[in-house]
Amino acid sequence: MASGADAATAGVAALGISGADGEWASACPPLRRNLHLLAPDEVSARCSSAVDLLVLRCGAPTALISRRGFKINRVELAKMLLNEGQMHLFEHWPEPGVDYDKKKSFFDQIRRLNSSYPGGLVSYIQNARKLLAESKAGKNPYDGFTPSVPSGEVLTFGDDNFVSLEAAGVKEARNAAFVLVAGGLGERLGYKGIKVALPRETTTGKCFLQHYIESILSLQEASCKMVDDGCHTKIPFVIMTSDDTNALTIQLLESNSYFGMEPSQVKILKQEKVACLADNDARLALDPNDKYRIQTKPHGHGDVHSLLYSSGLLEQWKSEGRKWVLFFQDTNGLLFNAIPSALGVSAIKGYNVNSLAVPRKAKEAIGGITKLSHVDGRTMVINVEYNQLDPLLRATGHPDGDANCETGYSPYPGNINQLILELGPYIEELKKTHGAISEFVNPKYTDSTKMAFKSSTRLECMMQDYPKTLPPSAKVGFTVMDTWLAYAPVKNNPEDAAKVPKGNPYHSATSGEMAIYRANSLILRKAGAQIADPVVDTFNGQEVEVWPHITWSPRWGLTFRNVKEKVRGDSSISQRSALAINGRNIFLEGLSLDGTLIVNSVDEAEVKITGHVQNKGWTIQHVDYKDTSEKEEIRIRGFKFEKVEQLEVNYTEPGKHSLSA
Asked: TM spans, by residue (predicted)?
């Protein structure tokens, strides 16, 4: 009598994937025994044992057992895995009838991994083999390239050029779409939630996502006002999420009524993870906790390009007359200080790609925007990581390597991963690449032979590497602004931040919030207000400047011109003060503030704030990051406000109002 395995093999012969047509599986007996799994669900569900399969063979309708009845995908996926050297994935598979659902789930996951990567798993595995071989050989990705300083714009905050560029950018904003890459949790920060839910600052408690949406809405309104007959354009806002952040991002939006944005303006694109690699042969790694599951890890924020391409949104935006796509990351609280003028630069200079940048000290741990020219004639303007830029310069005739020039900064500006792309050329490029971005691999080897990995690795890609595939004719540039104005990312936890050498940026929740107060204080100073100098204090082991705690809503101070128009007379703010402005038409006319003042008004109200406001205000209390009695978002900052006394005024009616304290 035939064994169960033999009967199973005989049974699936009628289904066209065994016998002569199933020889492709002969090299992998465990898979060959389980060929019935490749049938469509209505067939394979009835073939989980040899007995069921033989009954089906004798009595099933022809439509079910014809080859047309199969999900050919499963057959092709199985063939693909064997052809690409992935036989090990099936070595542990038991006889038919054992772990049937888990085996089916395996192919479901393979299908997802295959469909979410440009070119499918074949491309992923082949790309991985190539990159792993280059990594093992120690190949320099910049061999044959000579670096030089690219062309770009360096802006000075508040001068006439800056103001005119801001105006040009606001005008262009109605033709733009914004894309936020927000696939990460805040675990690296010591915060369990999604990063965009983290308070940007704790004076108002508004989270990053609220600030971003309010900024886009303010740009939308201001841009439409610059059109003679007005407009009703709604700026699209795309958020790229991941398995980790998708549900929580949607919950944050829905529970806060999308922070005032129409739900139809917001599109969520979820990024899938990619397969992990177990060795230099690019064998896919099985999950240590589930032998029927491929281990996966994030592919990097470069996936945003392929997601946009496959979503159809780019063509939709083009049909609506849009010209620009702005990409930004999740926790830079100063970003929108830079957006209007940078967009103005793109429009006036005609940049296909505009990278936002900040002045960078030589050898500072931030990538430098660099023009690379190859001996074969290729050129590109891309970000080169700081640990690669110095040796590249030394190897190409610059004996000092990455050195400061006469400005006191490196001539290679610091990349902050915020991009402005011209939509038309962007679409044409993605038609060629389908959104695939140049990848890299970073295996951690067990020893110098580079024969084995300490743990599985995977291919990664970065959003800012998009220009690597562009032709030399592409107009790629950058826009540099002062760091204090445009760049204060929140990405390090308190322990790691405290280890940063003095004088280098902490990039923590502590420094990120204090940077907002510093920027707002300096903007008000430039507008003519007298703002007291900061004091220095230490929180969570980080020495920072403590400026007056000044915040305002984007609709009050979207551009420097907006701020300057609303600061009149001889206004002054003491160092211990806090000022929160929430309203469009609030004017500071000779205000003297020593304490805490909160002003809220409806947009139809015009409010003048004058006179002397003095109260006990808010005091800063130190908080230890290990103090579990405090909320995580407070602990990671190392401080909280004790709200001793304040003056809060609310103007809910239209018309002219004044506060003469």
From this structure: none
Pair 455, 542 in one domain: no
Of 90, 115, 140, the one marking the end of a domain is 115
Q: Are residues 571 and 615 in the same domain?
A: yes
Residue 60 has pLDDT above 70, yes or no: no
Which tokens is 5 given? 């395995």
What is the distance between the alpha carbons of residues 357 and 343, in angstroms, rounded to a whole number? 13
Do 136 and 75 share a domain, yes or no? no
Q: What is the CATH number of the domain that holds 539?
A: 2.160.10.30
Residue 494 placed within a domain: no
Tell me whether residue 89 is in a domain.
yes
Q: In terms of residue numbers, what domain contains 24?
A: 4-115
Contacts 24+ apart (CB under 8 A), 55-61: 56/11, 57/11, 57/14
CB atoms within 10 A of CB 399: 7
Per DSSP, the chain holds a count of helices (H) and strands (E) of: 21, 31
Residues 199 and 70 in one domain: no
Which residue in 91, 66, 87, 65 sits closest to 78, CA to CA?
Answer: 87
Whether residues 477 and 586 share a domain: the answer is: no
294 and 81 Cβ atoms separated by less than 8 Å: no
Question: Of the given ranges (356-370, 540-554, 575-589, 608-622), which has the lowest mean pLDDT?
Answer: 356-370
Number of domains in the chain: 3
In a domain, 498, yes or no: no
CA–CA distances in Å: residue 239 to residues 95, 153, 354: 45, 28, 20
Q: Which of 338, 271, 291 is nearest to 90 (CA)?
A: 291
Contact of 8 with 36, CB cutoff 8 Å: yes
Strand partners, 284: 277
Name every residue whose Cβ is closer than 8 Å to that of residue 391 and which is 6 or more positions away in sequence: 401
Asked if residue 133 and residue 100 are part of one domain, the reply reads: no
User: By mean pLDDT, which of 399-403, 513-517, 573-577 is the weakest?
Assistant: 399-403
CATH number at residue 201: 3.90.550.10
- Side-chain half-sphere of 616: how many Cα atoms within 13 Å? 6
What pLDDT shows up at residue 22?
62
Contact 519, 337 (CB under 8 A): yes
Helices 50-59 and 4-11: angle between axes, nearest 10 degrees: 30
Quick one: tokens of 423? 């939509």
Read off the pLDDT of each residue in 419-426 and give the average, rounded to a whole number.
98
- The pLDDT, as a whole number, for residue 49 is 42
Find the angle CA(440)-CA(466)-CA(247) to the nearest 5 degrees: 80
574 and 431 in a common domain:
no
How are the residues of the chain apportioned to helix, strand and coil, as percentages rounded to the nearest 5? 40, 25, 35
Q: How far apart are CA 651 and CA 658, in angstroms?
A: 10
Between strands 586-594 and 605-614, the pairing is parallel
